[in-house]
Amino acid sequence: MAAAGAAAAEPNKEPAPEAEALAAKEEEDSSSVTAYVLVAGISAPVVFFVDYASNCLFMEEIEGSVTVRDYIESTMEAEKSPQSLLGLAKTIGQVLARMHDEDLIHGDLTTSNMLLKPPLEQLNIVLIDFGLSFISGLPEDKGVDLYVLEKAFLSTHPNTETVFEAFLQSYSASSKKARPVLKKLDEVRLRGRKRSMVG
Q1: Average pLDDT over residues 40-65
Q2: Which of 5, 9, 134, 155 sits 20 to 30 Å CA-CA off 108?
Q3: Is 51 annotated as catalytic?
């Protein structure tokens, strides 16, 4: 079992009550969202125990797993082509479509926050790190969730534009609410480009 989320404090200095309360709330929110995810049928580590005194979560360890980030990097090194990643993109699209259809916003979608559990060739995705997650049915929030993933994905994994496009196609085909979400994604992209131009 792994402990995560311990609040850092300066040596020989008690953390402020406000900081302790915030850390405790974050741990409680994370454990609640993780429980919601599991009920929705999305794979995530099981939370065994929340220690509010030390602000720690004790969670299931996914033995033998690798991050999707590491999997993509090793595949690109070996294959020299993104084509072999299209199946992974399809699976991620299906998982995130199910998550968004349940009105769950992850808040920090990156390939480091997705695990592949063995056997890796079965592409079983496990989502982790729900510290910034919340519940929302708004297409805007879901569009921002996808935009965060797009920015992280393309900056972390160069020359994988076709892989991300395959992900979006899978998301669109799998989600009952995809159309307004993808429309918002386009709007968020436009706002991002305008901010970049302004500086």
Answers
A1: 85
A2: 9
A3: no
